[in-house]
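User: Could you check the structure of this?
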Amino acid sequence: MRPLEDARRDVLSAVELLPIIEVALDDAHRLALATAVVATDDVPPFTNSAMDGYAVQAADTATVPVELKVLEDVAAGHSARGSVVAGTAIKIMTGAPLPDGADAVVRVEDTESAGATVLIKATVGLGTAVRVAGGDVQSGTEVFGQGETITPAHLAVLASLGLARPVVHRRAVVAILSTGDEVVAVDGGALQPSQIRDTNRPLLRALLAEMGADVVDLGIVGDDAAEMRRRIEQGAADADAVITSGGVSMGEYDLVKQILAEIGSVEFWKVAMQPAKPFAFGHVSGTPLFGLPGNPVSVMVAFEQFARPALLKMMGHRAIFRPRVPGTLIGGVSTDPAKTVFSRVVATHVATHTGDGWQARLVGEQSSNVLSALAIGNAFAVVPRGQADVADGGLTSLEMFRWPSTRTYEEAQNDR
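Assistant: Sure, the predicted structure tokens are below.
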């Protein structure tokens, strides 16, 4: 059997970056920056008030209460006509530019207005409630690096910098195909004997949408070699990658394996992992193809270990693997030491007398067809190849499959 780390390395080395394009800011969510972003402006662009109150000279508030003359009111979007001098104040709203001469703001709650004057009831120091120009981002500084994933917060920062069309790697288009005579669509009505509903395409559609890819749904194809070949070739022509589920094992009716051997440069591996041991990878007409097993949990595990990081790499992302955290496994687990084993668990963060940490418990039956345990769980307890079991309370690595990717390939090279 092929070690997991070797299979992942070969998959990642065989995929290429997608083209670099400019997109509208609203279309950049979940894409990766193709170049570093350097600020061309200060953020904020001018020194302003952090709250509603009165712009003052802090020295005037050394002894309170003190009465100051109010020169004018300044709303956000406007600038003061005059300057603050000793014994005076200017009423100011949040976000308005700090008037010349002022060096602090007294919040309105600490004042009493008397028309032409204001009673200051609290002492403030220099810079109180003042947001300095460039206090968030200074012009000329690198804000985000190449390969960084654009999140909603990134979009807001890019907007603050006036970057209306960021430079990114194009969104991947991925064709998906479920296979097998037994597989029927979820809206196909009552099941007939020997039929099962297709869970793999809904799973893959959601996983791909989560990572920012677009989907070409090739549907379900039965054990018809000619039709299966036609759809795989269609997917290779219409998409940047193809993902099939089922048909890559050793059975007589595993047609995907036979067809790919005819039309593509595809390797079939028994990967030393559980679940998802049978796996195919290669190219059809130059398009990467990921042949996943048919059982739904195997689909999820193989997608997470191979397809997702490869597609993220194609889209230019620096972080391509889910985070892993150390945790203790309550109840323990026995595994096959010849494989890297991914057990579905519920991981919780707990405080103990020895400090904070993660604990995990196995959830549900661990067979590769038991999909409900995957929905309940939030992590995989990863038992590396070469380790036979984890004792009750023993330390294990928890791969948090509901968290965004945080690890680069270099950081994941020691995964087994």
